[in-house]
What does this fold into?
Amino acid sequence: YPSGAPAIAADQAALQGAATIMVGPVGRDRFGRMCRDRLSADGVDVSQVRTDLVAPTATAHVAYDASGGRDFVFTLKHSAATGLVPDDLDAALFAGCRYLLVSGSTLFAPGPVAAVERAVALARDAGAVLALDLNVRAQLLDADGFAILAGLVAAAGILLAGHEDLASMARHGVPVDPAAFVAARPGRLALVKRGADGATLLT
It folds into this structure.
């Protein structure tokens, strides 16, 4: 499936009939075209998916063990994804925005971090709800990255997290309790993903 976690979410939201915009750069290669074409075919607005004429599309390779555990190898450092910057976020995009989805896997380089911070500010000004998919990739984050992720948890109205995400946050000194997250502010939701066992929704 050509995408990554944020694109999968955008794709599925569009298939459910939600007006959905994807923001982020891809390379001028077959991977980039495949991502854009798949999203567009499923109804995602890809007008803000910028093509980097030099850097390649980011890729991730995933190996699964017998228990369902995963090991990732990323090719991000010199990819188009590193070029995501605040200027990619036009304030006009947020007119009428109801939800902003941010994935923790985006916080791997200074440009994307700054872009996420601008997106969160624009969404807040528009009255939109921040939905945060923890999607922790510890090999991509330093201590500052985990601190930023913890700040996004505090700002979010919707939290999506798997058991591996929660365990990783705890190991790095920023534990997240989905039940406490929901209780801290009226209207919050938390979805704890349990793999083959489904998911638990906390309200």
Summary: DSSP finds six helices and nine strands in the chain.
